[in-house]
Structure prediction request, 277 residues.
Amino acid sequence: MIMKTTTLFAAALACLSAMTVQAHVGMKTPCARYHPAAGCPAPPSGQSIDYDINAPIGTSDNAARPLCKHTVPYTKRTVYNAGQTINTAYSVGAPHGGGHCQWALSYDEGKTWVVIKTLIRDCLRNAGPDYTVPVQIPANAPSGKATFMWLWNNAIGNRELYSNCADIEIKGTNGGSITGVAPLIANYGSSSVYLPEFATGADGREHFDKRKPVTIRVSGGNGPAEPEPVTTRPPKPTITTARPKPTDCPIAAAAETVYKTVYKTVTVTGAAQPTNA
Prediction:
């Protein structure tokens, strides 16, 4: 009986492990804060490399980590010119049916964000292990230190929000402003917008039309960013529709049930207790 139970326990762990890898995605170019990839800066003093960089920052029930996941910026920043296109890259376990992605800039260390690109439904759809998306910095972007954020709400699987941030410096105009919308924050705690799974049918894109207009204004000489409201709405993001893909791991739910059942019934004397990664 013990042998059979142990075998079931191992099988459940294997499936859950595979499911975890598949569900996780992270931004690696530009370097997300504390990314373990070669070529990324060393973490700032008091911080450490994040070997779980691909994990989500929260679920529809729990905002576990802050936006960006890490709040202390890199000391070294990647420099981009206003109008330049960043070929953003991601490490992908599995596309999980795609989803919604947003990219945003902040000049005040994450207090105020303006979206510079939105990809509805097809973000990460059919993505391979290395996935890229071109994101252009606005041509009128002011010079200064900025935070570049990526957000992803997956189409299939647990209702999660993924986010990574890169610390960049923009060479642009001496002062100026960027006008756009604030990002939609969904599936990030019980008070956030809830997006159910959208393998087929409605995908919640109407929520993106309700994002609030915002203008980020930066004074000359790399002064602080000053958000101010605008009275006109910017253009709506381009929306494309593609055929959905089936759930990536159809046995995941069954495996999780086995895992929970076995975990409650098996005790191995003297063995170390499992810990969460």
Observations:
- The domain at 26-246 is CATH 2.70.50.70 (Coagulation Factor XIII; Chain A, domain 1).
- DSSP finds two helices and twelve strands in the chain.
- The mean pLDDT is 80.
- Residues 179 and 236 are 13 Å apart (CA to CA).
